[in-house]
Amino acid sequence: MENKRVILAVALSLAVLVGWNFLFPPEKQAPKTETAVQQSASPSASSATAAPKAESLSAFAPTPGKKITVDTPLYTAVLNATGGVLEQFSLKNYHQTIAPNAPLVNLISDTARAKAPLGIILNGSPTWQNVEWSVEGGDLKLDAAASGSLVLVGRMGDTVLKRVMTFTGDSYLIDEKFSLSNNGGTPLRNRLSMTASVERLSAADDSYNPTQSAFYGASGLSLESGDKKLMEGIALEKPVEWGAVMSNYFLVAIIPDTTDLHGKAKIEDGIFRVALDKDGIEIPAGGRSDLSISYFLGPKVPKYLEMAPHNLIASIDYGWFDFVAKPLIKLLHFFYDYVGNYGTAIILLTILIKLIFWPLSQKSYKSMDQMKKLQPLLTQLREKYKDDRTKMNEEMMQLYKTYKVNPAGGCLPMVVQIPVFFGLYQALLHSIELRHAAFITHLPFTNMIWLADLSAKDPFYITPLVMGATMFLQQKMTPAPGDPTQAKVMLLMPVVFTFMFLNFPSGLVIYWLVNNVISIAQQGWMLNKKS
């Protein structure tokens, strides 16, 4: 995965500078999974209240196949009255590409529709296939301040299913009041599965923006993006609160108002499917069981995610450096509010970060300059004690002590800045605001599209190549390490980073490039100040 390559490359740089002891950071432990099956392997007893009385079907009139359109300022949805499954969910503010008149992002494609998105499975039986349904209400057109509901009623023997689905004009949430009624003369024990089916939300080869299954519970967020594992299917052992299919930018989630759920995920016919199972729903004769369910289909914009229950905002995952990423993304939006261009906002944020770390950088350059002065003496010691490394190290440490030089002084300030780099890296990578956001739309003096999408790579590789050149220039301005092997590895770092950055989202490359340019200017200023 490309994120791991970034971490490895930076870790390698630090290892070369500081020593050779930090090459193997601990890997993040993956959640325990098992091969998914159509039903949960073992029931988890969870009694539901049976106080409400069963729904009556005295005037039931099936309306098979009826299509219902819900139109809001944010999206257009089409539902099928047979089971209440979604057939379309187009986001009005998001297009598939930056091309003029590009189609809208449709979270429920024709291929995904065949897998019954938002369908309910009862006791292993798909209710969109084996149940007669009727609908109360028709097409809804809602403004931002309005809400509206549809009532879907299904009959399967003595069991009645009712779905009251409510839509709101200023939210991507669909709220559902679901009920199961037992009109028979004996108690029923039911198993319910709530499902979502979504076509891949990003390109199959986009390692920076993978489509993933996601589940959230007491132990936090569990993610799986490996196609091989998902084709086999996974089933989480621990209970979860919500399940979803998501990319960096979009999310389709099921959020029931209960926590005794078990999550499953699988890729079937190229479609990502997630299911949440609730077992042991006891309904006495003439009784009813109710459950509230929310669905979120939309962009991963914090203000909309915060409207959802059960901490859906956790779907924006900044990893270990969450505490750094969140304030940085707020600063980025702050700058954007003033300049109206996210590329310019990234540059201003980079300048601010460099100003904050300016004293540390000065200390680093001063330490490197001191080490440069000691290089002739260190070379003599290496030559004199080349056959006795223990003695050589002792003499070198004594030399550092005599001249009051810290050999790691040039690197430690850089180490402190690493969390900031990774925090900003994650913030930019997961910020939907950068998707299709332009910096410099056309290559200067041409009509060729250039940095018109900060979430995509530079189509001409200009910025990563310039970035590599700035790293090479920094290497030339920095005193060479005394160890020849270490010096060779350091010379390779600009090449490694350049190739790694070729396919980086251009917004991230701009950050690194500007950071390098400022560092070169700072180092040049120090050299001129000394002379």
Automatic annotation (TrEMBL):
- What keywords does the record list, in alphabetical order? Cell membrane, Chaperone, Membrane, Protein transport, Transmembrane, Transmembrane helix, Transport
Q: What membrane topology does this protein have?
A: Multi-pass membrane protein
Q: Which CDD domains match?
A: 5TM_YidC_Alb3 (cd20070), EcYidC-like_peri (cd19961)
Q: Which GO terms describe its biological process?
A: protein insertion into membrane; protein transport
| Regions that span the bilayer | 342-361, 405-428, 489-514
Q: Name one Pfam family in it.
A: 60KD_IMP
Q: Where is the Membrane insertase YidC N-terminal domain?
A: 68-330
Q: Which family does it belong to?
A: Belongs to the OXA1/ALB3/YidC family. Type 1 subfamily.
NCBIfam families according to UniProt? PRK01318.1-4 (NF002353), yidC_nterm (TIGR03593), yidC_oxa1_cterm (TIGR03592)
The entry's function note states:
Required for the insertion and/or proper folding and/or complex formation of integral membrane proteins into the membrane. Involved in integration of membrane proteins that insert both dependently and independently of the Sec translocase complex, as well as at least some lipoproteins. Aids folding of multispanning membrane proteins.
UniProt name for this protein: Membrane protein insertase YidC
- Give the encoding gene's name: yidC
